[in-house]
Amino acid sequence: MMIQATRQRGSVLIISLVILLVMTIIGLSSMESTILEERMAGNARDQDLAFQAAEAALRDGETDIIANIEPETLFWTDCTSARCEPAATGLDVWEDSSKIDWDGVVNVVEYGDNTGNVSLVGLSSPPAYVMERLVVVSPSDSATTGAGYGSTPKPKWYRLTARGKGLTTTAEAMVQSVFRK
Fold first, then answer.
1. In angstroms, what CA-CA distances link 64 with 27, 67, 71, 158?
2. Which pairing describes strands 128-134 and 83-84: parallel, antiparallel, or unpaired?
3. Count of beta carbons in the 10 Å neighbourhood of residue 47
4. Are 175 and 69 in contact (CB under 8 A)?
5. DSSP letter, residue 73
6. Which of 65, 41, 132, 120 shows the shortest CA–CA distance to 92?
């Protein structure tokens, strides 16, 4: 019996190369998708750290109000020591770059300055806050008493604005609270 030599056409080789090319394209696109998801997760983490830093500064400011703020003489129109009188310009104090320089840390209190807390590690800049005394006046209020307060001093209101940055300078969060003492 004699074996006849058949001529190979290479169709299996061509099909194998096409399948290998398709698998390579699928692998590359999944790698690209994974890299994009990794970047998104990193950015979300960075933004979350910025928010948490701003929250820490806000709580630091509230602690400062509870512990230290007594007379209104501690508040100035030029925001000295981050204690501001209400703005007369129409801009909120925290938006007014002539009074507050968040990047240069001018007229803001950095986290831990007043309470002795340890600074937050790894952030691109320390979180900071600014405090604004709010004037709440109704026609029936006097300087020492308010409607419904009898002879006790009426409560004082403060607006705290805090800014935090994440691990990079692009992630920034600002939070605000109105605090009554």
1. 55, 5, 14, 11
2. parallel
3. 16
4. no
5. G
6. 132
CB 61 within 8 A of CB 128: no
Tell me the per-residue pLDDT of 126-153, one tens digit each, with 9 for 90 and over: 888 888 888 766 555 554 444 454 555 6
Chain Cα centroid distance, residue 156: 27
* The amino acid at 128: A
C-beta separation of 90 from 83 below 8 A: no
pTM, two decimals, is 0.69
Q: What is the CA radius of gyration of the chain?
A: 31
Does residue 157 contact residue 146 with C-beta atoms inside 8 Å? Answer: no
d(CA 163, CA 108): 10
* pLDDT tens-digit readout, 40-63: 999 999 999 999 999 999 998 888
Please say whether the beta carbons of 92 and 131 come within 8 A: no
Please compute, for residue 27, the number of CA atoms within 13 A of its CA located in the half-sphere on the CB side. Answer: 6
Residue found under tokens 């692998």 = 27
